[in-house]
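Researcher: Next entry in the queue.
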Amino acid sequence: MKRGRGRGEKITEQVKSKMRGEKPGSVSLNLGCGRDIRDGCINIDHEPGPGIDQQLDISKVPMPFADNSVDRVLCSHVLEHILDWEKVVIDVYRMLKPGGVFELRVPYGFAPRAWHRAYFDKRTMDLFTAKNREEVSSNDTVLDFEMLSVRISRRFPIRYHLKKYLRLNMPHDFAIGRPWEICWMLRKPDIARREKMKE
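Model: Structure for this entry, 199 residues:
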């Protein structure tokens, strides 16, 4: 089995053609997409469905993509369903090209729901970023993602009631209210480029 191939899964011909794509060399993955099908992405989910390019259980790592082969990965509201979600983050790092971006969205805080296995707050991804390397005192795998941004989205406190009873369409994200989602933008460092800039 080649490095970077997941437990017997193979990349489908449809995915291979998308990887060759209109922009040669530009590959974007939408992991655990469900019904959130994105144009220009390879849409991956564990269940078959319309718009799904590759049926794959992303918790079984390594995924069938080569090292340093992907430009961008979106993973929206998926990791909270995976018990060993850290392994998925490590595998995404492996797949990303230097300079590649990982956009990760999860529910904020302790939000018990059916099928939720993990909970996140704004410091959860700190272990995987370069700035926090020196704080690690364990043998856990430490990555050196660059933290581009962390955003906590809030929901208006009585949004549901305003929409249902007064028919007011309130924006999903609001400046006040309870935190409901956290979004990280992480970039795999391009060490060769960084060294070149130092010269």
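Model: The beta strands are 28-31, 42-45, 54-55, 70-76, 96-107, 146-155, 178-187.
Researcher: Noted, moving on.
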